[in-house]
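Chain X:
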Amino acid sequence: MRLGSFETPGGERLVGELVNDRIQRLEVASMIAWLAGEGRDRAGEQFEPGELRPLAPVPEPPSVRDFYAYEGHVAAAARLRGGEIAAHWYEAPAFYFSNPASILGPGEPLRRPQATALLDFELEIAAIIGVAAGEPEIAGFTLMNDWSARDLQAGERTVGLGPAKAKDFGTSLGPWLVTPDELPYEDGRLRIGARVFVNGEQVASADASEKHFGWQEIVAHAARDTRLRAGDVLGSGTLAGGCLLELGPLPAPDRGEGRWLEPGDLVVLEADGLGRLETPVE
């Protein structure tokens, strides 16, 4: 199934399933309720996609954990800091808590924080948690852009508490929640390719399967000593080569140097089977 959250022109929110290029309304009131096992039947109403405003699949998730599961990205970040991958990284999946109040949906603009000159995209895939018979499981996957203010991040890292305002301004999710049976999902890994475009030019490509930790390990670690709730978001971490921190700034021949993301840019994440997540920068 391919499911989404939408808003009608009158401001009503609904959950819809993509069926034959139309949005079939489901009886459930919200995606979190669907993830908890409620309202799985279809209602009679159908819409053309252009009639509805797409929202993030889970517009207001209970929590957002962003992991750090791609060794290629971790190694590149460590090199830039003049070090090596921490030994503990190999022992358990590392993550930080992001802000559920900063979720952005498909097409929703991201405002560049005034305090940053080094705005970066991060190409990620997120698992959305459902609960069946009281047990958490991966109900679906979606694209995730974990935006970063790299100059703020460099200063915050020296404190030792992880990212703060460097991440606390926007996380884009969408366009669909795609159930695992719709995807090449084997051994806890999605075997799909992913890409990033800025203003129509491809700037990055990555293989989603090249994870050190599989999705089962990530879910188990997130659930240890606590409980996962329907709608919780688990980010994969940046796919190797999926950000400007690794790739280097965008070309800017007129300036004689590279540049980072700026107002007016359009950033598009794309992955096989998951669709396209577009975000204009303001």
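Chain Y:
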Amino acid sequence: MQIIPQTCPMPEIDWKKIRENYPEIHRGLYFNTAFIGLVAQSQQGIIQEAMLKMTQNFSALRADLLEEMSIIREEIAASVCCPSDFLALIPNLSEGIYSVAQMLRPLQKVMLYKGDYPALNLPFQKLGYDIIWLEQEEDLSPENIEQSLLKSNTKILALSWVQFKTGYRIDLERIAQICKSLGILLVLDATQGWCVFQTDLEKNDHIIFVASAYKWATAGLGMGILAMSPKWLEQYPPPLISTSQISTYDYFDDLGLIPLSMRVFELGHPHLLGILMLRHGIQNIREMGIQNIQDRVLSLSRHLSESLENQGFTLLSSHSDAHRSSIVVIPFEQGLSDYLQANSVELTGRGAGIRLSVHFYNDFEDIDRLIEIIQAYKSNKK
């Protein structure tokens, strides 16, 4: 169920043509997808059509969406290689992680990394879990994680696929194998990796995958996904209930009669515009091919890293291809950050670093122009 099967030849990609579908990329130098991903020009047509229908026959539009949801779920579920019954469409990562942390409370104990994204760690802290802390980024290697898990007697490991401060990408395949062999649930904040790197949730059915869609899925604000095998719902029933699971408005004396499925996490009415934008974003990803995107992003990231090192910067992001991601980080310098932004370079500061991030709509010329601006900054300092 991969987006583009590995056995199929990868399509020839015209990256310049794809780039034209993201007009904001031409406004300056955009190295800020780790903060928010650009939205395709073609999304405008999707939204305009939906808004027109909303003003003319809103009830029919809603009915059409509900009828199409099974197809939409299959398309989105394919982005993480799982059946559609693994999938819940949620507003964002924060809501998804909090729901998962509530669901898994009977396990009582979790292993977290201190430098990880707060929205991943805070729900477990707030709900009073017994926490085993990983202290350093070096602790995230498969070998160190395995040793820590063996010592800790915990049944949950919660980590980000890609660290938001440094861009460090965990070896998800090996860590997933370790967790499966030890009977441990891996709760994954996948926001900074989804739609760039591949995973197979049907094979790795002990992963609970949560991600917001406004970054690398290029789907705008207000949507995310929560994906896991429904078998975990039976073992750890979530303390949530959604009327989207029922086809009657009768009163229920016995809530056990309501079927248990991933739709339990889909509270309230569906976010119509958000779902349409997410669907279109995933369709664009599928047309490009996730392997093509991964290769493109890693090539750009490598070129950016090497170019910055050639300018004398010490990278705070990984030098290793095994842990490289779309995020490259150099030590924070206020003057440089201000100068780059004054010269229309979009970026963010995170922790002790200036964070630069690339996606498929970037090109090598963007990076070369960035280096020219940095060189000009250095010349002005002399």
